[in-house]
Write a structure and sequence with these properties.
Blueprint lengths: L8 E2 L10 H20 L5 H7 L5 H22 L2 E8 L4 E7 L13 H15 L5 E7 L4 E7 L2 H9 L9 H13 L14 E7 L9 H10 L3 E7 L5 E4 L2 E4 L4 H10 L3 E5 L2 H16 E7 L1 H23 L5
Parallel strand pairs: 3-4, 3-6, 6-7, 7-10
Antiparallel strand pairs: 1-2, 2-11, 4-5, 8-9
């Protein structure tokens, strides 16, 4: 049974009919309270009534009933065997890191410069991935290249990042194609029943496509292959570089990168500082490191029911206890 909103689905939804007892119990409680108040009217001397019957805290009584009802609701939900989509760690995946090494990456609007920060954060991102993941490295310039094929050897990827030098031009669409080629070289399933590991491309760039096919075409190819692109626009609008004695502006084309992410059904991120880029990589790590799976959540609901039951019992004890005045 599937219910809308935040409420979970249930394997035994008919058991939820026991929740109809909750409004009945509420009505009984209200009725009992009114009957008690009617009996109290017989006492005209309220001073004598206070001496005979010790006054109890009204809010503690109401709280006891409320906690008892919440416990009943949670335990009934647990009995109906709830399940929900939860994030679970992926066992396997292949991640292609596409790193922009075009000349615009020498801009110093991000201190000390875009390239240094991008390298450092890319290395930290690679280190943060689960050790069983295969990682490949592709460089983005006028002539994109596969620096490292998919491998679990993190040192090879890190070494490849550290030793990259700046090159001319920016071919975003072509770099996506090379990234897809890298994914094709990932280890294949060993058994007939084993599915291929999911793949994703993490693309960091700061520039405009100046060479080769447009980024939109590369993104369309990625979508056809079922590969999501997590695009990062790195830098500020005020970035610039000095080339051949001439100052050239180097703003980030956010619209282009957003389209690439949307076409591939991936996600787009903006990062203008070192800390922002660090957070972006952490968010991407959470996205590619987990997948949604159906899991039974009976234990969680039973735990809430037990917790509410214990609190209800403590509230009932507080009603019976004689507190010093």
């Amino acid at each position: 049974m599937s219910l809308p909103g935040w409420f979970p689905d249930f394997s035994e939804p008919m058991r939820l009919l026991w929740l109809l007892a909750v409004p009945v119990l509420v009505l009984l409680y209200v009725w009992a309270r009114r009957q008690r108040n009617k009996r109290g009217i017989r006492f005209t001397n309220t001073g004598m009534l206070g001496a005979v019957v010790r006054q109890q805290s009204q809010w503690r009584r109401h709280l006891t009933v409320l906690l008892s009802l919440l416990s009943l609701i949670a335990l009934t939900a647990a009995w109906a065997k709830p399940y929900a989509q939860v994030e679970v760690p992926r066992e396997r995946a292949t991640i292609v890191v596409v790193l922009d090494i075009s000349q615009s990456m020498q801009a110093t609007d991000v201190r000390p410069d875009r390239m240094t920060v991008a390298k450092n954060q890319a290395i930290d991102f690679v280190k943060s991935l689960p050790p069983q993941y295969n990682v490949a490295l592709v460089t983005l310039s006028g002539a994109p290249a596969m620096v490292a094929r998919p491998t679990t050897d993190r040192s090879a990827i890190i070494r490849g990042i550290e030793t990259r030098n700046l090159q001319d031009s920016t071919a975003i669409g072509e770099s996506i194609v090379v990234g897809l080629q890298a994914l094709d070289q990932a280890p294949k399933p060993k058994g007939a029943d084993e599915e291929a590991a999911p793949g994703a491309i993490v693309l960091l760039t700061d520039g405009e496509n100046t060479n080769g096919r447009p980024g939109d075409q590369g993104a369309a190819l990625a979508k056809a292959a079922g590969v999501k692109i997590y695009a990062i626009g790195f830098g500020t609008e005020n970035g610039y570089v000095d080339l051949d004695g001439k100052r050239e502006p180097a703003p980030v084309n956010h619209d282009q990168l957003r389209r690439i992410a949307e076409i591939s059904e991936g996600e787009y991120f903006r990062a203008a500082t070192n800390d922002q880029l660090k957070k972006v990589y952490a968010d991407i790590g959470s996205s590619v490191g987990y997948e949604l799976a159906h899991r039974e959540t009976t234990a969680a609901w039973a735990g809430w029911g037990l917790g509410f039951g214990v609190l209800a019992a403590l509230a009932a004890i507080s009603l019976a206890a004689r507190w010093p005045s």
